[in-house]
Design goal:
Blueprint (H helix, E strand, L loop, with lengths): L3 H6 L10 H14 L10 H30 L3 E5 L9 H7 L3 H10 L4 H5 L11 H15 L4 E6 L7 E5 L2 E5 L12 E12 L2 E5 L8 E5 L2 E13 L6 E11 L5 H5 L8 H8 L11 H30 L5 H4 E6 L6 H12 L4 H11 E4 L10 E3 H7 L1 H21 L4 H7 L2 E2 L5 E3 H7 L3 E4 L2 H9 L3 H6 L4 E3 L6 H7 L2 H11 L20 H26 L8 E6 L8 H17 L8 E6 L7 H18 L8 E5 L5 H10 L2 E4 L11 H7 L3 E4 L5 H8 L5 E2 L4 H10 L3 H6 L2 H11 L12 H9 L5 H20 L1 H14 L5 H13 L4
Parallel strand pairs: 1-2, 1-10, 2-9, 10-11, 11-15, 15-16, 17-18, 17-20, 18-19, 20-21, 21-22
Antiparallel strand pairs: 3-4, 5-8, 6-7, 8-9, 12-14, 13-14
């Protein structure tokens, strides 16, 4: 047995070389001895794995050094709990952050292997859906970059969300098989395994006094959570942090008695039930079974993560009373909100603290990021389901709630109405546990993700909780990592910027401001335009390969890529396309701006209207793209299976960025930041971070339209009449009539009648109310596009002025103002 003292005396390995010749030799060695292939017969995926293993060695050196440094200095750790981490491909990211892109490329070239082709083989990790998951990934990279010791915690989904295919224009959901051939970046940690319970009963022992009475939860079901670790490399490899994902295993993988008795399916029942926890992201929750699985997933990863956090703290410090001094736990939305109740259970039932001490430690340790103002997106669970699945946690929720409500009534004089609003139990209709309220009350900090969103949060979904605890809500405007979303995905622009202003912006994105004078430089504008055209050619080639559609890169590339949801208003964009289609045919004598409208995004499997909007986009595309009278002036393209890798091609190619959500409904957005950083002009409402983007880039360099959040609220309060609005807009009325009557769906003329009639009847998302303003804004874009020099001057200023939206800045604010962690 090797003792700790002997380990401490072992020398550290020498730094591994970045010399291309030595890298090439190591790749051949790994190909031979780790993969078992001769270079003469190796396939592209073999070269990919061998390359990852060689790069991984260099990452591991820094990973272990980072871990040792945190342990030795006693630095505070941040734990980021998120049901999603949309990390994308990792190889190029790691190589770039190690500063070895050129060396690895040269090493592979010497072996006759193309670096870009190899890295393109890596599957996208199917660990997220949209902006929330991508934000978590950007934050993990930025925490490592700004030297904040951190763990990310989530679930290692086998199939993730789903792989989206199109069948006659309809979304079809298929399993995403990203783990089918293993994942060379991850490490299984068999020692980090924890028992997770569900159901059962709660017994009370002791003589009934508060000092001796204890509750013992006896779960009916138990599974084992086992950790898989992935290193997350910061810029210049200053720090490497850990993404720890949990997979579920049964206590007994097979019931042999049942199997031998012939019940082969029943024998695997427990195994299948456990594995279901880590199979699919966001199982449809329209059924009781779907709701139960989703709650099980949320508790599963929350409990495993907290047990791991407490074990690590006790191992290093030996006393949980110091937890909040050394640990900061960030809840990314309400998905891990059950962690508040689980922390109380662990502290009270397992570690024998009294209620008040446990509650003080819990609140001091947790903080919560809210991502939505949509009431339906603030999760709540039926009390019977919650109590059946987590009986001890239900007791603790009631106990916490009683504590809070007594304070609200006795100390703050809250009325019955306000008491009902701040309660963790929703009494309207069937009683439900409000996870947003649990997260709020169990945290010392609650942050919004844009200035507008934070103020609206105080006024709407958390207005009464804000009144009860007015010092808790604060703003942390979202950001994106400029490494992935400029330096890696847009190498042409990255190189052009470096040549113009040097390398300082690589370490501080706000130094992109040095690019501003080049917006007036005709030569630089021309080179900037050439880079944009190269990116548009790349996207056009992708569309041609995947979809057989030929595009003209000289057209204006108008792109809307995001989760398909009615509040994001892809429908508004499609209706405007129908209207302009009619105008082009009616007025062929006019000079129309050639335009390609791109869409990409996934609809939740149970969200019928969102799936119908995808079908409408494809039906409209089929008609317009095949109409010779349009002369190629307008094309519509819906690219299936939107993911990080597709975004990395689409974002650099965009001329126009569609950020057109109903004002007051988008918390922040991060796509708006990515597009602006890559030199696209934004057309958008004053919603989410669009407000702050306008402040940064200037009113002349963004196209804003539509109702403000205040005006939307006023319209709804005043009894908005969409039918009158539609009837007073000739272009809108004609476009809606064409869609509803089956012009674009001749095989089923009533296909879209319900979707369109909904606009006449209620139009909650103000599509009709904003339509005319949107069309005027689009014609303003046409006018701007005609003046090429002025257009690129504006887009260069967008790139120059959005460095503030770096996730490095966001994380530094979290670290200083919420977590009290890092340098």
């Amino acid at each position: 047995m090797i003792t700790k003292s002997v380990i401490a005396d072992l020398p550290s390995p020498p730094p591994r070389s970045a010399d291309p010749a030595k890298l090439a030799a190591e790749i051949i060695e790994r190909l031979t001895y780790s993969i078992g292939k001769d270079a003469k017969v190796a396939k592209p995926h073999d070269w990919m794995t061998a390359t990852i293993l060689v790069i991984r060695d260099r990452v591991i050196d820094r990973w272990m050094a980072s871990t040792r440094q945190t342990y030795e200095t006693g630095g505070k750790r941040v734990y980021y709990l998120s049901l999603e981490f949309l990390i994308g491909r990792l190889t190029r990211d790691a190589v770039s952050n190690l500063g070895m892109i050129d060396e690895v490329r040269e090493a592979l070239n010497s072996l006759g292997v193309d670096f870009d082709a190899v890295t393109a083989l890596e599957p996208d990790a199917a660990l997220g859906n949209g902006g929330l998951g991508r934000l978590a990934a950007c934050f993990m990279e930025s925490m490592a970059t700004v030297d904040v010791p951190a763990y990310g915690y989530g679930i290692r989904y086998v199939h993730g969300l789903f792989r989206q295919q199109m069948s006659d224009g309809w979304q079809v959901e298929l399993p995403e098989t990203w783990l089918a051939n293993g994942n060379a970046w991850e490490f299984q940690r068999r020692e980090s395994a924890y028992e997770i319970g569900f159901g059962g009963s709660v017994d009370t022992i002791g003589n009934g006094s508060d000092e001796t009475q204890r509750c013992i939860w006896k779960p009916q079901e138990r599974v084992i959570a086992t950790a898989f670790d992935t290193p997350v490399v910061g810029w210049r490899a200053k720090r490497v942090n850990t993404l720890r994902l949990w997979t579920a295993q049964p206590i007994d993988p097979i019931l042999l008695d049942a199997f031998n008795a012939g019940d082969h399916i029943g024998a695997l029942r427990e195994s299948n039930k456990a594995e279901a926890l880590a199979r699919v992201l966001y199982p449809a929750d329209q059924t009781p079974a779907g709701q139960e699985l989703r709650l099980r997933q949320e508790y599963f990863f929350s409990s495993a993560s907290l047990q791991d956090i407490l074990r690590r703290h006790l191992q290093q410090y030996g006393d949980l009373r110091t937890l909040a001094d050394k640990v900061a736990i960030q809840l990314n939305d309400t998905h891990p909100a059950v962690s508040v109740a689980e922390m109380m259970r662990l502290l009270i039932d397992i570690h024998r603290m009294d209620f008040d001490q446990a509650w003080d430690i819990t609140r001091a340790t947790f903080s919560y990021t809210n991502h939505t103002l949509l009431p339906e997106a603030l999760e709540s669970w039926p009390v019977p389901l919650f109590e059946r699945l987590l009986p001890r946690h239900m007791q603790l929720v009631y106990a916490i709630n009683a504590n809070v409500l007594r304070h609200a009534r006795k100390d703050r004089g809250f009325s019955d109405e306000k008491i009902r609003a701040v309660s963790m139990i929703d009494e309207a209709g069937d009683r439900r546990v409000r996870m947003g309220n649990l997260a709020f009350l169990g945290s010392h900090s609650i942050n919004g993700v844009s200035a507008l969103h934070t103020e609206l949060m105080k006024q709407t979904v958390f207005s009464d909780l804000h009144g009860l605890y007015p010092d808790r809500i604060n703003n942390k405007t979202n950001g994106i990592t400029p490494r992935r979303w400029l330096m890696q995905c847009n190498r042409g622009l990255f190189g052009l910027i470096r040549e113009a202003i040097g390398d300082d912006f690589m370490d501080d994105a706000e130094k992109l401001k040095a690019l501003e004078p080049f917006a007036r430089d005709a030569g630089f504008r021309a080179r900037f335009a050439n880079v944009k055209r190269d990116n548009k050619v790349r996207l056009s080639n992708l569309v041609a390969r995947r979809m057989g559609i030929r595009l003209d890169p000289s057209s204006l590339f108008d792109i809307q890529i995001k989760r398909i949801h009615e509040y994001k208003r892809q429908l508004l964009n499609i209706i405007e396309a129908v209207a302009i289609y009619d105008q082009i045919r009616s007025h062929p004598e006019l000079d129309w701006t050639p335009r390609v409208k791109f869409f990409a995004g996934k609809a939740a499997p149970s969200y019928y209207n969102a799936k119908l909007i995808i079908k409408l986009a494809n039906d409209v595309a089929r008609v317009i793209n095949n109409d010779p009278t349009v002369r190629g002036l307008l094309k519509i393209v819906f690219i299936p299976n939107y993911n990080v890798s597709l975004a990395e091609v689409m974002v650099p190619a965009a001329d126009l960025s569609e950020q057109i959500s109903t004002a007051g409904m988008e918390a922040s957005g991060t796509g708006n930041m990515k597009f602006a950083l890559n030199g696209a002009l934004t057309i958008g409402t004053l919603d989410g971070a669009n407000v702050e983007i306008r402040e940064c880039v200037g009113e002349d360099n963004i196209v804003i339209f539509g109702l403000t959040a205040e005006e939307v609220a006023q319209q709804r309060a005043d009894g908005y009449n969409p039918r009158a609005v539609i009837e007073n807009s000739r272009e809108l009325s004609q476009a809606l009539t064409a869609i509803a009557s089956g012009v674009f769906s001749p095989d089923d003329r009533d296909r879209f009648s319900g979707l369109i009639s909904g606009l006449y009847e209620h139009d909650w998302f103000m599509v009709a109310a904003d339509f005319d303003a949107y069309t005027r804004a689009q014609r303003q874009v046409d006018s701007l596009w005609v003046d090429e020099e002025a257009w690129y001057g504006r887009t260069i200023l967008n790139t120059a002025r959005v460095g503030w939206f770096s996730s490095d800045r966001t994380i530094r604010q979290y670290a200083k103002e919420i977590w009290k962690a890092g340098p």
